[in-house]
Amino acid sequence: MKDSILNVLNELEVQSSLEKSRKVNVLPENRMLAITKETGELLNMILRLKKAKNMLEIGTSVGYSTIWCAEAILEQSGKIITVEHNPTKIKRAKENFLKVEIQDTILIKEGNAIDIIKEFSKQEKYRNFFDFVLIDADKENIIEYFDLIFPMVSIQGVIITDNMLYPEKYRENMKEFSNYLKANPDLQTITSNIGNGEEITIKIK
Questions:
Q1: 136 vs 33, 94, 117, CA distance in Å?
Q2: Sequence spans of domains, the chain
Q3: β pairing state of 106-110 and 79-84
Q4: Is the C or the N end of the chain the one with fewer CB within 10 Å?
Q5: Which phi and psi (to 5°) does residue 171 adopt?
Q6: What's CA 192's distance to the chain center, in Å?
Q7: Which Gene Ontology biological process is one annotated for this entry (predicted)?
Q8: Where on the phi/psi map is residue 34: left (φ > 0), alpha (ψ -120 to 50), or beta?
């Protein structure tokens, strides 16, 4: 991994730690709420194993997870479409992407995630298009996100869902989500305790 990417990831990890400990004053809606470093490493590794080329990310935040993914997907000349509604976070993400010179790999879609995904789902070009998806957005709509995205995922495509175990206040929502997935015969899924808990799902048909 290039030093420039490592440096920015390290900076963001420090910032995330400061925000979580409330040692810096950031409005609640502008906090990073980023994935953990271990989850970033997991995403990067799966992307490499998959040789993924087309990725969808729901929840850009300030770009920490996006950078972990872009570093791997660049090897396949791939592209990432990432969705975020918060303009302050988008501004920070763009600055971070410029620092590591990956801006040409990433298309940011600004707006409500449900509306954007619904629009994608109407376009034939996105059917079976994404070979990797990261869902890291509001937990109340998690099943709706998944149902809209699933037809756009290629066979053997991977969907990672963050926050399956932490924060604990979402644990019941996420348990319901995991059980919902396990009832679907068109996929295989497991819950990993890496990071904040990751649901790792493969579309098998």
A1: 9, 18, 14
A2: 3-203
A3: parallel
A4: C
A5: -60, -40
A6: 16
A7: methylation
A8: beta
Six-digit token string for 180: 């919902």
Q: What global pTM score does this model have?
A: 0.94
Task: Give the CB-side neighbour count of residue 6, counting CA atoms within 13 A.
Answer: 3
Residues 8, 41, 106: CA angle, nearest 5 degrees: 55
Cβ–Cβ < 8 Å for 59, 83 = yes
Cβ neighbours around 55 below 10 Å, total: 27
Cα→Cα distances 15→8, 32, 61, Å: 10, 8, 13
By CB atoms closer than 10 A (0-12, 13-18, 19+), residue 143 is middle
Instruction: Could you please state the CATH topology (level 3) that the domain comprising 3-203 is classified under.
Output: Rossmann fold (3.40.50)
Distances (CA, A) of 202 to 25, 66, 154, 160: 39, 20, 9, 9
Torsion of CA 172, 132, 109, 59, to 10 degrees: 30
Sequence-distant (6+) residues with CB within 8 A of 17 are none
pLDDT per residue, tens digit, the chain (205 aa), is 888 899 999 999 998 888 888 888 888 888 888 899 999 999 999 999 999 999 999 999 999 999 999 999 999 999 999 999 999 999 999 999 999 999 999 999 999 999 999 999 999 999 999 999 999 999 999 999 999 999 999 999 999 999 999 999 999 999 999 999 999 999 999 999 999 999 999 999 9
